Amino acid sequence: MSTPAPLIELADRVVAQARPDEQLEVFVSRGGNTEVRVYEGDVEHFVSAQSEGIGIRVVADGRTGFAYAGTLAEDAVAEVLAEARDNVAFGTPDEHAGLAEPDGVERTEQPLWSQELADTSTADKIALAKELEQITLGTDTRIRTEDANYADAFGEAAVASTAGMRQWGRENGCYVTIGTMADDGNETQTGHGFSVGRKVSDLDLHRAANDAVDRATRLLGATKPASQRTTIVLDPLVTAQFLSIISSTLSGSSVVKGRSLFRDRLNEQVAASGVTLVDDPTNPHAYTATEIDGEGLAARRNVLIDDGVLTQFTHNSYSGRRFGVASTANAIRSGFADTPGVGALALSLVPGARSQAEIVAGIDAGVLIQSVQGIHSGVNPVSGDFSTGAAGLMIVNGELGEPVREFTIASTLQKMLLDIVEVGGDIDWLPMRAAGMSLVVDDVTMSGV
Amino acid sequence: MIDADVLEQTIALGLATGADFAEVYAEDKRSTSAGLDDDRVEQVNSGRDRGAGIRVIKGDTTGFAHTSDLSATGLAAAARAAAAAAGQGDGQTRTIALNQRSQHRVNTIAVGPDEIAKADKVALLERVNDAARSYAPEIVQVSAGYGDARKHTLVANSEGVHVEDDIVRIILRINAVANGDAGMQTGFKSVGHTIGFEMFDQIDVEELARDAARQAITKLNARPAPSGALPVVINRGTGGVLFHEACGHGLEADLVAKGASVYKDKVGELVASPLVTLVDDGTMPGEWGTVGYDSEGHESRRNVLIENGVLADYMWDHRRSRAAGRGPSGNGRRQSYMHLPMVRMTNTFVLDGSDTPSDIIANTDNGVYVAQLGGGSVNTATGDFVFGMNEAYLIEGGKITAPLREGNLIGNGPEVLKNIDMLGNDFAMGSPGTCGKDGQGVPVGDGQPTLRVSSLTIGGTAA
């Protein structure tokens, strides 16, 4: 596992079989994960899983075919190549079809592999999940846990192609999560907490526990608020979910197919001044940091929105060719079974200066949005309509007040970006493709009673 | 897929350190998908996923490992890993005698997807694209996706269970974008069944495409949805997701056992309007959530969950039903051999009432009519749930009037179930869904007649 040789060599052997009239790209990966779930002091389950597989893309006469198999066995590899070739015939010829070509950008070396994590014993992982549950339960007598989890993942991948690509990379990382329920005799409210790291010693169990306890207990007694227009403060996790949706509207794939609401807005003001949105997979703090994108190009820092102005879209090689620009190294591949899509790899707003408490202190009337529900069903990234269920705390005269639940917040994505009043300084790295921080948005419709 | 003697040896290895239970779940899946977007067939994809997951339970601890190597050696390694994960102990050799049952066939597959040329699958997409684009000039973009999968599964366990299943799923999705003065709007339709390619003999794919186009165009003139609480009428065959979220997840025995459900300790109590009888049925021929056996080797079944408003039963997997000292309900499902099974719904639906749909609308003075719901989600511990409206209209003076922009509806499950005050007599199943829980997605179906909820909060921006 410590050298690129086996995967690269396998990829090389397949690439060597390319016929003169075809382009061929091989993506090979191998990885695994551990998942420990603890409930009431016992291990509820322990999953130790490994997987491997190969995906092959063949391009000939402007047509593309793809096939994959969830194994690296030699006979399966031969079958995948034959299937991918067979599939080529059914695509519509496309002058922009093709593979990524090396662009000379050097890889940014990052500490993405922790031997300490790789060497961590099973017993230590179980102990961490148990400790997290104990700390959480010891914090407040009203708290029960739904489960306490430790998870880690490691992966290595190689991409090689007839276009001259030949790259290999590997990463690992870990996180803990805890789900809580708080009871006051009349009702139950839920909370969650987590902590992310490259190695086990990065994990902050007390922070995860405190967040999970606070979030559940402070919602006890929550009522349904009156409908109103108000200022909202998004908690970091909610901001990260919001940014993930914004990033889908900035995907070159949506842009070239006319599906992005920002498709004609390059170099225009699309967000409030002071808002700078960056995709930076070269920042090792990001859980999804990587040295190469899904097509093997060196991952790089891209500024998508600079002080409110839309500066660029994300592209892979295909969307870049269609748009007339180079790939921004934003090919996303969720695994060997996937063809390269386009999207942000590790998104974040450039953080501001103030903590959430300082921000709240400056707001006369508003609501802190602690969690959202149904962001996948109530947001349409093509039309921009935004509507999601929410729970949180009212803000009155600079202080957190009554808890509220069972309401929605609604606006449009276009309007929300322009209505951003402040970006918090409390950047939080999460086990997802976007980081979070507190975010203040004006003039949002809150729908309740 | 795997010989019985190899299965027996594998299970014995799983039990070797003193475990109570060991299980092999294996699958061999071949899939084909094709996507058309922007007037181009982008590519045809083929996939092969084959492997086995070994589960070993010792006391309250489950150990799990999986492998893509189905040889005796590969399975043995996975069994040892799963046993180690379940915890060390002294074991004694136990002999396993598997008792293979003939297949519990719930579906017919007249024409397997492997018997159909890829060109014919691609041709469906081109027909869909042409029909949606020619519907109206406002349609500026169309994407369509075709997918088929044939999955052979096998379950064998230390209780002697040994079953195999063979399920085909075929799905067609259409997404249309219309452009107008107020920006772009989308229309979405899908159809999917657990039958063979003969599915397309019964479905007019052009009509489905035109319907997606119509939906996008209708919304070009949509006004912002209201905010606040109003009566909501939900079109038949599109509102099953309401029950899936409002109570389905809360009736899953694993969540109930952890006290993470508002329906805990409510069996025998009135939890919904007496109009409501809710059923989960994995045996419905051809439906999206149908299975012959669940992923733990239990036959799929029809289970009544709520009868005339009274909570009748929860849904169960092997572990929870064993702990409760009762039989299984056929609801132990998993996404793939790489995943642990847990309690999941299959096809969940509400039976017919007696109102006509036109009466339901005529009796609603001021409200919202949802012609098609989107996805949803629920917090089972609080009962708060949301679901999106893909196509909705105002109801004014007992008539359906102006189209509304998209948004979420929010409600509390136990309250909403009691607020169902009219139930139609026009039952229909809905479109294919994927239910997500704890990181796993499984295919589910849902259905209901037209119905009215006397009050739901609508997440729009209009006053």
Summary, kept brief:
The complex is a heterodimer of chains A (449) and B (463). By secondary structure, chain A is α+β, with helices and mostly antiparallel strands.
Structure explained in plain terms:
The complex is a heterodimer of chains A (449) and B (463). Chain A is of the alpha+beta class. Chain A has helices at residues 5-15, 74-88, 115-118, 122-139, 205-217, 236-249, 252-256, 317-323, 356-361, 413-418, and strands at residues 23-39, 42-60, 63-69, 143-161, 166-183, 188-197, 228-234, 277-279, 302-306, 309-310, 331-332, 341-342, 347-349, 365-373, 385-396, 399-412, 420-423, 439-447. In chain A, helix 4 packs parallel to helix 5 (205-217). Chain B is of the alpha+beta class and 463 residues long. Chain B is 21% helix and 41% strand. Chain B has helices at 4-15, 72-86, 118-133, 199-202, 205-220, 240-248, 253-257, 318-323, 357-362, 413-418, and strands at 21-37, 40-58, 61-67, 99-100, 139-157, 161-180, 183-193, 227-234, 278-281, 302-307, 310-311, 332-333, 342-343, 347-350, 366-378, 384-396, 399-404, 407-412, 420-423, 428-429, 433-437, 440-448, 451-459. In chain B, helix 1 packs parallel to helix 2 and helix 3 runs parallel beside helix 5. Strand 3 (63-69) of chain A pairs parallel with strand 2 of chain B, so a sheet runs across the interface.
Q: How much of the residues of chain A is beta strand, in percent?
A: 35-45%
Strand content of chain B: 35-45%
The global form of chain B is globular
Subunit arrangement of the protein: heterodimer
